[in-house]
Design a protein that fits this description.
By secondary structure, the chain is α/β, with parallel strands linked by helices. It has helices spanning 33-39, 71-92, 106-117, 160-172, 190-200; strands at 7-10, 17-22, 44-48, 52-54, 57-59, 63-65, 68-69, 98-104, 124-128, 146-152, 176-182. The strands form three sheets. A seven-stranded mixed β-sheet has the order 1-3-2-8-9-10-11, sandwiched between helices. Strands 4-5 form a two-stranded antiparallel ribbon. The relative contact order is 0.15. Bound molecules: D-malate. D-malate (MLT) binds next to helix 3.
Length: 203
């Protein structure tokens, strides 16, 4: 199987459901396992490590500065991750019927890119602390996409207007987006995870 990304697959008790876990800068494939368990303790989990290094910290794509992305690399890495995920889902979870991405920060930004630029892999996406990953390029129609966004109004890394712009882009393309704002900064809180769990179970 495609070996571009270090990863972990944990089989759940319900083979129809898979969570794809995408960490923040400096994280790894294990980071969001507890969050995944909190969202759906029966689903299988595929934790994927970003394959770009920034001063020893794994990421999913290069950036030129904080919040300034290297678009060429972003598109290249998103394509690579897309192929990896397609392959990994076929390999580990050929009977999956509900695929949900859970991304935090840099992981949420690559998940947003997959949604906006690539053929559909995820039925639902939970994006914690995401920003608009690129501008002035094609964005797919996103009818039927179900998206939960969690954001901190005082997030110093992901400014509020960047998340709002992402929400506007996704909605303009037909996605159903539930946005949730917290009086927090960049950290992921239990409250956010709990609300994502409630959203995930509301269908
Ligand atoms: C990014 O580079 O994706 C964002 O700035 C968030 C982060 O620091 O990971």
């Amino acid at each position: 199987m495609n070996d571009t990304h270090q990863h972990i697959f944990i089989e759940g008790t319900d083979p129809k459901k898979v969570l794809i876990l995408l960490h923040g800068t400096g994280g790894n494939e294990h980071d969001l396992i507890n969050v995944g368990k909190h969202i759906d303790s029966t689903a299988s989990m595929l934790g994927v490590r970003g394959n770009v290094m920034e001063g020893g910290m794994p990421r999913y794509f290069r950036r030129l500065a904080e919040g300034v992305f290297d678009e060429e690399d972003l598109f290249f890495r998103a394509e690579q991750l897309h192929l990896f995920l397609k392959d990994a889902l076929l390999h580990y979870a050929p009977n999956s019927e509900l695929v949900t991405a859970i991304g935090y920060s840099n992981g949420a930004n690559i998940a947003a890119t997959l949604l906006m630029k690539h053929e559909k892999i995820m039925d639902r996406s939970i994006l914690f602390h995401a920003m608009v990953p690129y501008r002035n390029q094609h964005v797919h129609e996103l009818n039927n996409a179900q998206i939960f966004i969690g954001a901190g109004v005082n997030d110093p890394i992901i400014p509020k207007n960047e998340t709002q712009e992402l929400i506007d882009v996704l909605r303009a393309k037909g996605a159903t987006v539930q946005d949730n704002w917290y009086n927090n900064g960049h950290q992921l809180t239990l409250e956010e995870v709990q609300q994502a769990h409630n959203w995930y179970n509301s269908f």
